[in-house]
Amino acid sequence: MAKAFFRLQKFLRRTQFLLFFLTAAYLMAGSLLLLQRTRLVIQQGSRGTSLNQALAVPDEVAGVGIADPRALQDPRPGARLLVGMDALQEPALDQRHSPRWLVSRNSELRQLRRRWFHRFISDQEPVQTAGFKAMKHAAEHKGTYMGCFTDDSRERTLKGAVFYDLRKMTVAHCQEACAERAYTYAGLAYGAECYCGNTLPATASKPEECNSECKGEKGSVCGGVNRLSVYRVEELRAGARRRRNVVYRGCFRTPENLTDTFPASLIQPNLTVETCSEFCSKKEFPLAVIRGQECYCGYPTGRFSLRDGADGLRCSRTPNTSSAAGGKYCLVYQTPVQDTRCTDRKFLTTKSKVFVALSSFPGAGNTWARHLIEHATGYYTGSYYFDGALYNKGFKGEKDHWRSRRTICVKTHESGKTEIEMFDSAILLIRNPYKSLMAEFNRKYAGHLGYATDRNWKSKEWPDFVNSYASWWASHVLDWLKYGKRLLIVHYEDLKQSLIPKLKEMVEFLNVTVTEDRLLCVENNRDGNFKRSGAKQKDFEPFTQEMKDLINRYILTVDEALRGRNFTGLPREYVPR
C-alpha cells in the first residue's frame, strides 16, 4: 500500500513539473510570435508600394483602360489593363498579375490600415465625487455660478447651442463658447457636455447632485447625471462681442407675410447691423433680417429658404436708409446663434433591418457626410472603427458596436470582399483623389482640423504615402462596384455644390422621412465643427508629374467602371491636372 502511494506521489510531482514547463514554453512562444508579427507590420508599412507594379482590371469593368485624359469627356473602349509606369512599355500582359485587380496587392496594406484606424482611446467615466462643493470651484471661473439644476432632455431649457468634448471639456471652455454666441447662460452636464441658452432652468437641485468632474479640468464640477451646473456669462459677452462673427448672407426678396415668416421683430430709428444681430441673438434666432428701420429674426424656412439670392445692387448696404425697390428686398445676416432645429440626435429605438454602410476612401469627406446625415435624420451614425477624436466631439455612435444596428448607417473605409458583403446596401462617397490624398495626409499628421507642415510635405513620407494610397483610392471604388449589393453613388463635389438635393437622395436611400425645415437647418449648419482651420498653404502643388500620370490613370479606370455599371461618371474637374 505504501509503495503504491509513493508511486502515485512521484507521478503527480512529475506531472506538475511537466505542466509548469509546457506553460512556460507556451508563453515564451506566444511572446516571440507577437514580436515577430509587430516587426513585420512595421516593415510592411515603411516599404510602401512600388510604382512599377502592374494593376489588372476586374471582370466587372472589362474594357476599362488607359486613355488620354480627354477620354473622360468622350469615353471610348480602351485597353483592358491599367499598368504602372514601366509596364506601359511592355506589349505583353504580365501573367503574374491576376484579374482580381488589387486584392492580393493590397491585402498587406489593408492590415496596416486597420492598425492605423483602430486608435482605441481609453474611456474615462465621469468621476463621481459626491461632496464636491460647486460654489467653491465656481469662484475660480469668470462667470457667475447660478446653481445646480435638473436637466430634462425632453424639455431642455438651455437648448440654444450644444457642444461635446469628452476629453477636454472645462467650465471656462463652455462659458466662452456660449458667450461668443451671445447666450446668457452656460450649463454643463455629465462632465463633458455644454449647453447654452438665455433662460434659466426652472427646477433647482441639491448642490451635491452636480458631482461629475470636468473631463479636461480636475477639481472642477461639470454637472452630473441629468444635472446642469449653470453659469451666467453675460459679463463675458462684452469681451466676446469683439470675436463674434456676424456673416452677411446676401440680398433676398422680402417674403409676402413678414409676421408669419419671422417670429420676432424690432423697429428702431438708425437701426444698425450690430443692433439687429444682438436683438436676434438674445431671442435665440440664427438669422437677422433688415429692411430699412425694421429688424426681423427667424430661421431659414420654405417661405424664406435663402436659395435664390438677388442682385446686391437691389439692396442698400446701409441698413438705416430706405431699402431698395420700395421694401421688396432685404439684407440677411447670420448671427452667432446656432440653428438648433436639427441638433437633436438619438440611437434607433429598434434594430435596423437593413445594414447600410457609408463607405469612402479616407479623406473623401466621410465625417462631413456623417454630420449631414445625423442632423438630417436625427439618428447617430456608427463606425467600423473607433476614433476617439470624433467620439469626443459628439459622434456618440463611434463607441457603439458597429454591428449593433442601432445607428442609421456605419462608416467604413474597408474594401475587401468579406467586409463589403456584410452590408445590405451602401452609400459610396467618392472625392477627387488629389483632394482626398491631401486631406488624408493632413489628418494623419495634424488631426481632423489641422494642416500638415511644410516639412511633412517635403519629407520622404509624402511620396511613399501617394505611392501606397493612390491605388487604394481606385481599388476601393472598384471593389464596392463589384461586391456591393445596392449602391447609391454620391460625389463629394456634387454634395458640396447642391447640398439639399443630394442630401434628400441620401435620406431617401436610408428610408427616413424628414421635413423641409430640417433640411434647411442642416444647410444652415452645413460645416459643423470639422472644417479645417489654421494656416493653409496657397498655390501649393505637392504632386510631381510622375504622381499625376499615375493618379490620372486610376481616375480614368474608375470613371469607365462607373459608366459600365450605368452610374454617372466622375466629374470632369478630376482630370486633366
UniProtKB/TrEMBL annotation:
It holds the Pfam family Sulfotransfer_1. The keyword Repeat applies. It comes from the Eukaryota. PROSITE patterns: WSC (PS51212). Keywords: Repeat. The keyword Disulfide bond does not apply. Residues 142-234, 245-342 form the WSC domain. InterPro entries: P-loop_NTPase (IPR027417), Sialate-O-sulfotransferase (IPR051589), Sulfotransferase_dom (IPR000863), WSC_carb-bd (IPR002889). One of its GO terms (molecular function) is sulfotransferase activity. Belongs to the WSCD family. This is WSCD1 protein. It comes from Sclerurus mexicanus (tawny-throated leaftosser).
